[in-house]
Amino acid sequence: PPKLSILNNCTPSQLEGLCSFLQLSTCPEPFLVRFCSWLLALSPDLSYTSAAILAEQLFLRRVLSLSQPPSRHLMAALTSFCSKYSHPLCRVLVAAVLQEPGEGAEQTKLMCELVEECLEPHSVQLLLSQVLEVPLSEKLLPVLQAVLGRQEVLPPELLDLLVLTLCQQAPAFATSLNFAKLVTAVLTVYQSQVS
Fold first, then answer.
1. Which residues make Cβ contacts (< 8 Å) with residue 113, sequence separation at least 6?
2. Cis, bond preceding 155 (omega within 30 deg of 0)
3. In 10 A of CB 96, how many CB atoms?
4. Cis peptide upstream of residue 121 (ω within 30 degrees of 0)
5. What is the mean pLDDT of residues 89-101?
6. Whether 190 contacts 154, CB under 8 Å
7. How far is the C-alpha of 143 from the C-alpha of 140, rounded, in Å?
């Protein structure tokens, strides 16, 4: 709707207030899908800051509270939003999931799905750099595996950081089959760059 062009004219605090007024963080998921399709039609595109605020308002609470696989509506909305605003979504969502204590199995699966099906290559690199900023855990190994499954060309500094992280944290994962698979994948995918 033409009225949504207001999103391009809001300051960050106004946009947060508008999201709160519209109760976007708790709106029904079918509406969420429709709202995200409207966002894609906006011209000009949202600024990075506005997209990050919307990513937080639309998805953060829903994703952090997942205790079972996300509904098809939530996945459709995420995929839609991701198709144009994957960088701000990554910055907001992944950072929050990484800071959450505990296993977060559903959040991990969701991150893997985003990596495998939605994210642009530059956003995959952003996600990888975010994961490498925190201590590795069993919960994060499948996410790294999903990144490697994309077989993206990584910048040398990011590949070096990945290899260094795996070397430094290897003793903590001495009995982990997932870690062994991850190291094997790194050696297979990037064999020409890893000595």
1. 75
2. no
3. 16
4. no
5. 83
6. yes
7. 5
* Dist CA 48 CA 50 (whole Å): 6
**Radius of gyration over every alpha carbon of the chain, rounded to an integer in angstroms:** 18
Q: With the CA atoms of 24, 25, 26 and 27 taken in that order, what torsion angle do they form, in degrees rounded to the nearest 10?
A: 30
Q: Are the C-beta atoms of residues 120 and 90 closer than 8 Å to each other?
A: no
| CATH number of this structure's domain 1-118 | 1.25.40.480
The DSSP letter of residue 134 is S
In residues, how long is the chain?
195
The structure's pTM equals 0.84
Residue 74 has pLDDT above 90, yes or no: yes
CA dihedral 96, 94, 62, 73 (to 10 degrees): 170
Mean per-residue pLDDT for 55-69?
A: 92
d(CA 50, CA 88): 9
Average pLDDT, the chain: 89
- For the chain, which residues make up each domain, given as ranges? 1-118, 126-194
